[in-house]
Each structure stands twice: as C-alpha cells, then as structure tokens.
C-alpha cells in the first residue's frame, strides 16, 4: 500500500494532488512548500506541473523511493536534500526546474518565477546571487529563456567572485554580459 496525500482531486481524467492537497501534504511531512526539498521530490516524481502531482507521478515516484508511509517519506527527506550536494544531480535538478516552473504554453520563464526559482536553487550557494537578483530587479528583462537559465548556473560555477576570469568575448548570453557591466559600474560608484 503506497502512502497517498489526504487531499486528491480529479481534474479531467487525472487524479491529482493540487495546491490545497500539496499544503496538507507538506504539513504531513513537516516541510514548508517553498523548501527546495519539494523541488527535489518533484524531480524524483518527474512531476510535470508546479503545484500538482498526478496520481500516476505519485505512485511511480513513491515506488521508486520505496516510500509507502508518511514516516518513510519523512526519513527520505535527508536523502533528497543530499542529492543537491552532487554537482551532476544538482545540474539535472536545476535544468528540470526551468521546465517545471514555466507556463507550459510558454518557452520562457517569467522573471518573477525565475527569480524565485534561482533564489531557491542558488540563493544559499552562490555568493553573488543577491547582487544578481538585484540586477534582475532593475533590469528590463521580463522573461528568462532556457539558454540564459542554463548559463546562469555555469556562470555561478565558473566565474570568480571578483569576475576577474570573465571573458567579455566569451559565448555568454547578453543577460550575463549586462550583469557583469552593471556590477562593475556599481562597484566603481
């Protein structure tokens, strides 16, 4: 018998755990809905839509995690968090987050959702994140495309905090060129 959240709705032909059920589920396992571990769980379940788990995603994911009780799922949370410490898994989760969070009829991620997801994923591990977030706040950007999204991770992993190894002639998206220019100007003033 696989553990099921307390609130399951039917939408169309799918049984789903929606936002209300997700809140109850998070209560059951003692995790805030905005906790990054929920994104890792969604990745493990291969969930397609943020805020929703279909019954099929749920059953397949819980079976693969070998969780058939709330207690077992609670005990799995540390394992799920640990996946973020492996750079390969982190990159897979990071890339997954883009498609998971975007509106399915859009190719890009709206800037507010992008800022939230970047904060969730990079906020505690990339020292330049607060400055990058500030840049996004004042920028003209309304959306982030997948190329920009993926390059932000690469930038955060490879560029020194003082930006000394940033190659202006490199193949970075304009977004990151503009960030570097903005940040350097900000430091000069």
UniProtKB/TrEMBL annotation:
What InterPro entries is this protein classified in? DCN-prot (IPR014764), DCN1-like_PONY (IPR042460), PONY_dom (IPR005176)
Q: In Gene Ontology terms, what is one molecular function of this protein?
A: cullin family protein binding
Q: Which residues form the DCUN1 domain?
A: 1-184
What is the top-level taxon of the source organism? Eukaryota
One of the record's GO cellular component terms: ubiquitin ligase complex
What is one GO biological process annotated to this record? Answer: protein neddylation
Q: Which PANTHER family match?
A: DCN1-LIKE PROTEIN 4, RP42 RELATED
Name listed for the protein in its UniProt record: DCN1-like protein
Q: Which organism is it from?
A: Phyllostomus discolor
Taxonomy of origin reads: Eukaryota, Metazoa, Chordata, Craniata, Vertebrata
Q: Which gene encodes it?
A: DCUN1D4
